[in-house]
Amino acid sequence: MQNKLQELTDKLYNEGLSKGKQEGEELLAKAKVQAEEMVAKAQAEAAEIIAAAQKQAEEIKTKTASDIRMASSQSIAATKKDIETLIVGKITGDAVKKNLTSADFIKDLIKAVAEKFTTEGPVDLNLILPESLQKDLEPFVTNELGKLLGAGIEASFSKKIAGGFQIGPKNGGYFVSFTEETFSQLISEYLRPTTKKLLFG
What span, in angstroms and rounded, lies between the C-alpha atoms of 113 and 185? Predict the structure, then answer.
């Protein structure tokens, strides 16, 4: 009886041990599968994060490079324009100023322009001249120009005009400008392309 009891106990123990071992192995295998799935998921997420970060870094790099290229291009263009302006200004500035503040030159220019206004008959004209040349030009306008053109001339003198003049029909509502500023702009527009080519090819 004692032996049978021992056998039964051993059998139950062995079966329980075997079953526990089997369940333990199953749990261990299941845990291992879950762990592998978690590692794979973590690795996939990490790969996605790295790919997204690399993409963002590449976009930033591309944008930065583009911005730098644009800023460099604009800076070079602005510098070239400044150099052109400086050189053209040097070329035209002194010569234009010298001639358009010369009373004799302005007299000849006024005659030539005024005659164009009166080709189809006398036209009363308005003149705006530099105040700095009033002493030299007022007698010419008052005594000579009207007689030469056979028309009325009304002249005023302005501090706003450094050199040259503005002229237009008395009742025409417009003026043609031959001032130092307009001459410089006109000459600059013609010189600028040539200067640009000479400087920068």
Answer: 19
Q: Is the pLDDT of residue 157 over 70?
A: yes
* Count: domains in the chain: 1
The gap from C-alpha 100 to its chain's centroid, in whole angstroms, comes to: 35
Q: What is the DSSP letter of 156?
A: E
**What range defines the domain where residue 143 resides?**
95-200
**Residue at 52 is within a domain:** no
**pLDDT grade for 159, boundaries at 50, 70 and 90:** confident
Considering only CA atoms, which of 120, 197, 133 is closest in space to residue 163? 133
pLDDT digits (tens, 9 = 90+) for 139-148: 888 888 877 7
- Residue keyed to tokens 């005024």: 114
Taken in order 119, 122, 123, 125, is the CA torsion positive or negative?
positive
Q: What is the amino acid identity at position 96?
A: V
